[in-house]
Amino acid sequence: MKIDIQEYQEKWPSDFLYHKENITDALSGFKVFIEHIGSTSVPGLGAKPIIDILVGIEDDTLLNQIVSPMQSAGFTYFKKLEPGWPERRLFVFLEPISDRIIPNIIDLNDDDSFREHFINKSNIHIVVKDTYDWKRHLAFRDFIRSHPDIRDEYYKLKKELSNREFKDTLEYNSYKNDFIKYVEKKAIARFDENTVKK
Q1: Domain limits for position 92
Q2: Is residue 175 part of a domain?
Q3: Is residue 5 part of a domain?
Q4: Distance between CA atoms of 74 and 92, rounded to whole angstroms?
Q5: For residue 41, how many other CB atoms are within 10 A of its CB?
Q6: Which terminus of the chain, N or C, has less C-beta within 10 A?
Q7: Cβ within 8 Å of residue 94, ≥6 positions away
Q8: pLDDT tens readout for residues 132-153
Q9: pLDDT tens digits along 54-107
Q10: Quick one: 4 exposed, middle or buried, by C-beta within 10 A (0-12, 13-18, 19+)?
Q11: Residue 3: inside a domain, yes or no?
Q12: How high does pLDDT run on average in the chain?
């Protein structure tokens, strides 16, 4: 498969606000913190047209409690990736391109055939607020936003990778991993420094 990397779209922030409102309604019984993350949150950075959203909850005992309300609101629970990242619950917002019914779960033994029938419009990563996973996502976003040279280098890498064939998005992500970890290390150091100053 090829990865569709698009030029930055001015509508991405409003797309985020649309999903944020739906998530807020779905999780109205919980105290949540919702942030736009990933490449679509960085002005000027091209990206896959999928809005990445980080949702912070108060503690890990709530991770399983939020599953049913999110499913009821039309988000698909991506349980398939949970063994590799048990501190996160991942949901996606799928838009049908066939007459198939949107699944409420992609389970451990499910294959990727759902991609033939749906377009993924957003990834919702739910983690405990102020944990390392929460911090690293925000730190990376803020660092890229404030360093246009790094943003442009990242975009160049993604454009180069978009010319290749990949088995799936996980393989594509693995090719970006060294760059992301390098930037993330700097970003977290800056994030911690700014937190101490406040």
Answers
A1: 12-197
A2: yes
A3: no
A4: 9
A5: 24
A6: C
A7: 76, 102, 103, 114, 118, 119, 120, 121
A8: 999 999 999 999 999 999 999 9
A9: 999 999 999 999 999 999 999 999 999 999 999 999 999 999 998 889 999 999
A10: exposed
A11: no
A12: 94
pLDDT at 98: 86
**What would the two tokens of residue 127 be?**
């983690």
Domain count, the chain: 1
First to last CA, the chain: 45
User: Which CATH number belongs to the domain containing residue 183 in this structure?
Assistant: 3.30.460.10
H helices present in 8-66, as ranges:
12-26
Could you say which DSSP state residue 64 is in? Answer: T
> Look-up: residue for tokens 């939020």?
66
Tokens for 168, please give them: 């799936």
Taking the CA of residue 25 as centre, how many other CA atoms within 13 Å lie in the half-sphere pointing to its CB? 11
SS (H, E, C) 154-191: HHHHHHHHCCCCCCCHHHHHHHHHHHHHHHHHHHHHHH
- The model scores a pTM over 0.70: yes
For residues 103 and 149, is the Cβ–Cβ distance under 8 A? no
